[in-house]
Write a structure and sequence with these properties.
There is one protein chain. By secondary structure, the protein is an alpha/beta fold. It has helices at residues 30-35, 61-73, 90-100, 124-135, 193-199, 230-234, 261-270, 292-295, 311-324, 328-336; strands at 4-12, 17-19, 24-26, 44-54, 80-84, 101-102, 107-111, 142-147, 150-153, 157-159, 168-170, 177-180, 183-186, 208-209, 217-221, 240-245, 274-279, 303-305. The strands form five sheets. The protein has an eight-stranded mixed beta sheet, with helices on both faces. Helix 2 crosses helix 3 (90-100). The model is unreliable at 198-202 (pLDDT under 50).
Length: 347
Amino acid sequence: MTKKRILLVATGGTIASKEEGNGLSPALSGEELTRYVPEMADLATLDVKQAMNIDSTNMRPSDWLRVARTITESYDDYDGFVVLHGTDTMAYTAAALSYLIQHSPKPIVLTGSQRPMASAFTDAKLNLYQSVLYATDDDARNVSIAFGGIVIAGTRARKQRTMSFNAFTSVNFPPLAYIRTDRIVRSAPFAHARKAEGSRGHTADRPVVYDKLDPRVFALKLTPGLDSRIFSALAPSYDAVILETFGIGGIPEQGETGPCFQDAIYSWVDSGRIAVMTTQVPEEGLDLGVYEVGRAYANHPGILRGADMTPEAIVAKTMWALGQTRDVAEVEHLFNCEINHDRSPFE
């Protein structure tokens, strides 16, 4: 049986890091990392491309585009892709790739580790092996994160723990699968997902690819007493603000000084900018219609609702939508489309 061809796209991160006197920093190349896990040769024929070698703290939207190009330029030559990435911003990159490379019939799997590959007690070897295993699976497709024995849709991942090996959790959506050493166990809703997706007409030889993002997006977390004049301060530098509200969608009527929040937010969107409402509570999502302090924003043009999306997906999706169009209605349409399981269809 012919082994599948998998491209490893190395970007750096903890998995590639060494201690060289000033703290951990990426030092190993993708080729060097593969030598630590020779068992992968039994799974697939592997090639490596080094897109960059950076700490993921330094990952920028321009780097997301670079990783996406590395994949799409080689798309026809491989059966799947594994992106080696630092954990700190992996959820952002996975979300961004979900919007830049949509409906991919081939799997694009991100992984990394909490400890460096060269560490005596690393989680890197198993994560890398299992990611390649998942990338060779006939039913795997689209963008996902495989980490700590769990596979998560690329738009639903969040780094939940800073040190433990089970670093990532799937937010408001079930994991796609679990990996038990070398066996993939799919969650019940996804056991026959490829057949169901094919009936909806989403399968094709190639994905739908985009190559533009607008990085001028700011995530603003509400805190008690926040000055509403923050919106006018942000206006020269940003095209969209993502407002992390209190609870299920609470926004203060008045800050300590300046105009009321409603006036400040309406002025922001009426100038042609975008505001996205979400919640700073990790689970269960937003509903602006529940309380009086949120209902005024429920249907105002230019105010989008993040529903049960993760903050990472909201940031990446807003950048993607604004990268395609400046028309507010079209931005809203793009934002509200469900892509790679990023939002529940209750709105």
